[in-house]
Design brief:
By secondary structure, this protein is of the alpha+beta class. It has one domain: Roll (Ubiquitin-like (UB roll)). The chain has two helices and five strands. β1 and β2 form a beta hairpin. Belongs to the UPF0538 family.
Length: about 150
């Protein structure tokens, strides 16, 4: 007799794969300042990861930054980079602002109009950081936090 092993619970699946790609929830972490840890989250509900690209996501988030009053303090940064911060049920980084790992494979290309978000490995409950790449590289060289 053979026993089948499942790495998931059929009765209660993980939230990362419990919703279809066209109906996902993702969090965008808008980073104004790395040293001062100025971060504001936007939660996007019912987001279509199957058809939307990084460019679509970048444009939509930039529109929200420009139009929502609560994001007014975040308007003076020239945002140019999207990077996955963490996947649902994955290990989190010890840095509360940005994930220093995976610069080669977790950075999204907001100029690419072909590659869909799910092709970057983005799934339900993924967190994505939006920031200025120059500020990130300077902070990565000297990750000193200020209060």
């Amino acid at each position: 007799m053979t026993t089948t092993y499942h790495d998931y619970d059929l009765e209660e699946p993980l939230t990362s794969n419990a919703r279809p790609l066209k109906n996902s929830v993702i969090t965008i972490r808008i980073i104004k300042s790395f040293p001062y840890r100025n971060v504001k989250n936007i939660v996007l509900h019912d987001y279509d990861l199957a058809d939307k690209t990084a460019k679509d996501l970048f444009i939509e988030v930039m529109k929200r930054i420009q139009n929502e009053g609560s994001l007014r303090p975040f308007r003076n940064v020239k945002y140019d980079t999207l990077k996955i911060y963490t996947h649902a049920h994955g290990s989190k980084t010890v840095n509360l602002v940005i994930n220093f790992d995976h610069d080669d494979d977790w950075i999204l290309d907001p100029e690419n109009e072909e590659k869909k978000l799910f092709e970057y490995g983005i799934e339900n409950e993924t967190e994505i950081s939006l920031f200025n790449r120059g500020d990130y590289l300077r902070f990565k060289e000297n990750p000193e936090e200020k209060w």
